[in-house]
Amino acid sequence: MRTNIDAVRNVLLAGLILLLAVLPAKGEQSQPEEYEGLQGASSIRTVFDVRAGAPKSAAIQLDLILQTFSDGNIRVVDERPEFVVVFIGPAVKLVTTDVKGFQPEEQEYIEKIGAIVREMARQGIKLEICIFAAEVMGVDPATILPAIKHVRNGWISMIGYQAQGYSLVPVY
Fold first, then answer.
1. Is residue 54 assigned to a domain?
2. CATH code of the domain containing 69
3. Quick check: pTM over 0.85?
4. Which residue among 31, 92, 111, 145 is the one 20 to 30 A from 135 at the CA level?
């Protein structure tokens, strides 16, 4: 009987040693496998300059931002990446409840954009819109999706984020 208990204990001990050998040490992060650009990075802080004005293209690009936020390679570097999306230029027309001026097939993408924006906000991505651009483009600020914070000048916002160390990613 004692021999069986010793054998089980030895198997469990060997399994524990093997498990500890393959797990990273506490505080040590494994490196993202696919992207050289992430090697050595310790945090992810990104501001997206969204100007894409075509509904289909913008929907695809916003969805890619959301996928990037959740990507495992990003999460290896930073469990809580900081993403900010700033809508300026023609993109301000795509994040409102007013779909006048869009063709019926484009309205489908406007709805998708709204769903993506809501999901971004739910996941903790900050969203801002340039009110100057909204006024120039004829967008009533009252129609802007509620998840999006209004800033007077989107450029000033992006300048501020870059001064804080955020990487700028243009989305045109």
1. yes
2. 3.40.1260.10
3. no
4. 111
